[in-house]
Amino acid sequence: MKIEYDRDTCIGMFQCVAEWDGFERDEDAGKAVLVDGEETDEDIFVQEVPEDAEFDAKFAARVCPVDAIAVYDDDGEQLIP
């Protein structure tokens, strides 16, 4: 499973941070950070999600108020917006 995070879309509510430790606060920028995320495009970060963190990663995506987080299965099908 892969998570994709659009940092430009993020509005800094940090709900994802509260749900999964794969995200951290960047208070200076007022945005979340995808820990160990790889930047694939400007302000788009991706990361493979460990199996034991899949539930929390999905929940982090679901609680994002601006849909800045998407989750994809191993076949590339989008599971969460």
Automatic annotation (TrEMBL):
Matching Pfam families: Fer4_15
Electron transport among keywords: yes
Gene3D superfamilies: 3.30.70.20
Species, as recorded: Haloarcula salinisoli
Keyword list, A-Z: Electron transport, Iron, Iron-sulfur, Metal-binding, Transport
GO molecular function, one term: metal ion binding
Official protein name in the record: Ferredoxin
Source species, domain of life: Archaea
Keyword Transferase: no
